[in-house]
Specification:
By secondary structure, the chain is an all-beta fold. The protein is 0% helix and 55% strand.
Length: 121
């Protein structure tokens, strides 16, 4: 249910390396999230916002479910540092932090108090 995105390019030489993370999409908001092992985040979905996540460090178990799935099929996947993935609208997502983690979160629509695209079941 998460769509993993591979690097679009990589280059290494004697100076170090460059890894191209993403070169598509339009992102209006970016956040840095730090979480302690054992904590849970998310438990929501969006109707109009696509989210992208880049795991900087740690390990996180993600449970996802399309809210339109009448069978309520839950998909579980564990991600770790270096993983980059996208979660589309109408996908309920819950993150359980397995090992202290930091990640970047990009949103295709910025969140605001007036038109908050944030829903819980």
């Amino acid at each position: 249910m998460i769509k993993k995105i591979p690097n679009y390019f990589s280059h290494s030489d004697d100076r170090g390396s460059i890894n191209g993370i993403i070169n598509t999409g339009t992102w209006e908001e970016m956040n840095l999230i730090s979480s302690i092992a054992g904590t849970v985040r998310g438990g929501h979905y969006h109707k109009h916002t696509t989210e992208a996540f880049y795991i900087l460090e740690g390990r996180v178990k993600i449970n996802t479910r399309n809210i339109h799935d009448s069978n309520n099929h839950i998909h579980e996947e564990t991600v770790h540092s270096g993983d980059f993935f996208i979660i589309e609208p109408f996908v309920l997502h819950t993150f359980t932090v397995v090992k202290d983690a930091k990640w970047l979160n990009l949103l295709s629509k910025k969140m605001n108090d007036i038109d908050k695209d944030f829903f819980r079941e």
